[in-house]
Write a structure and sequence with these properties.
Elements: H1 8-17, E1 19-23, H2 27-38, E2 60-61, H3 68-89, E3 93-103, E4 110-113, E5 127-132, E6 143-146, H4 169-176, E7 177-179, E8 186-191, E9 196-198, E10 207-216, E11 222-226, E12 233-238, H5 243-246, H6 249-253, E13 260-266, H7 274-282, H8 284-291, H9 301-305, H10 325-332
Antiparallel strand pairs: 1-8, 2-3, 3-10, 4-9, 5-8, 5-10, 6-7, 6-9, 11-12, 12-13
């Protein structure tokens, strides 16, 4: 298993829960970063209407802004502020992109989601650092998470398909989502497959936070493009350091022209029932220990045997008669 965190107790907690909580930067450093970025001039002036060409949300997000020079400088400032945090807690990870979030009062609900997977294989771990730059509580729309919901199935989160929990999001809201109460500069480092979201800001002040996307240094960052004409497979596109600066959400969804072909992966995404989800959540630690090679066994064989889709004219993603499904999928695509 590739070690993710420098400390063994962090590693153990991460495998079990999907996140760790830690002091990341000081309150003073948090305020300095707010002052520096708020002095810049994004296209939405940190106060989006929700009906612009680039941003249909009611919160400001660096990636969703129209001003590329702002995006570039904000990314530089966040890299500068958090590189030491990455080096302190993580074992050879690097920053791919960073986002500055501002939720104005009365706005900013963030739907339940999983972050996009930005590494070539499902077994690879990509991470997010989420750090509020002001104190956060449920009232001002803090992050909410479903503990242990990471890597319970081999899905690729995508904006082009409904998530596997689409039919029971109300159950997640009522029963599983837990709000994080944090001070400015405290934060959470979590697996990108952890289910999370946040409510609108019901306070009278802006809720401000930073989100940092990370991959292991030895792994190239990628983007999974689901072609509407062939939804049985993803095309994997190699990305560069400016990918999230040069592209908008719309160019990315339409298949960005500035990303090169890297390979393909079968699309084994499928919806779960709430009963399936709860059963898989219950044995999530066992699944992940197999995935990371800490225990013997195929972590997803039962899931994959339940879906049979074609990925090419003559090869199936899964075959009910084949017990080595996960090995087949690992070996299926030819990466350059």
């Amino acid at each position: 298993m590739r070690q993710i965190f420098r400390q063994a107790d962090h590693e153990e907690q991460f495998i079990k829960k999907g996140f760790i909580l830690a002091p990341l930067i000081s309150r003073e450093e948090a305020q300095q970063l707010v002052d520096k970025i708020m002095s810049l001039e994004p296209g939405d002036n940190f106060n989006p209407s929700g009906d612009s060409e680039y941003n249909t949300a009611t919160y400001h997000c660096t990636f969703l802004d129209s001003n590329k020079e702002y995006k570039r400088e904000a990314n530089r400032l966040m890299h500068e502020a958090f590189q030491a945090v990455v080096d302190k807690y993580l074992n050879d990870f690097r920053i791919v992109t960073a986002n500055f979030y501002v939720k104005p009062p009365g706005r900013g609900q963030f739907t339940i989601h999983q972050n996009w997977h930005i590494a070539p294989e499902i077994k690879d771990t990509t991470l997010t650092i989420w750090c509020p730059l002001v104190d956060v509580v449920p009232e001002n729309g803090t992050l909410k998470i479903v503990e242990g919901s990471h890597k319970i199935i081999p899905n690729i989160p995508t904006a082009k398909e409904a998530p596997f929990y689409h039919d029971f999001e109300d159950v997640l809201q009522e029963k599983y989502l837990k709000p994080m109460t944090l001070k400015a500069g405290e934060g959470i480092i979590f697996d990108d497959h952890l289910i999370h979201g946040s409510d609108e800001n019901r306070s009278s002040e802006n809720r401000i936070a930073v989100q940092i996307a990370l991959v292991p240094k030895e792994i190239p960052p990628v983007h999974f493009h689901l072609d509407p004409s062939d939804t049985n497979r993803f095309e994997i596109l190699a990305t560069d350091d400016d990918f999230y600066i040069d592209n908008s959400i719309f160019t990315i969804l339409q298949k960005p022209s500035n990303a090169s072909h890297y390979g393909y992966m079968p699309n084994v995404n499928r919806p779960l029932s709430v009963a399936e989800f709860e059963e898989r959540l219950q044995r999530g630690t066992e699944t992940r220990r197999k995935l990371y090679g800490l225990e013997e066994g195929d972590p997803y064989s039962d899931y994959l045997l339940e879906k049979e889709e074609l990925v090419s004219d003559n090869e199936a993603v899964t075959e009910v008669s084949n017990p080595n499904v996960w090995a087949k999928i690992r070996n299926w695509f030819n990466l350059n």
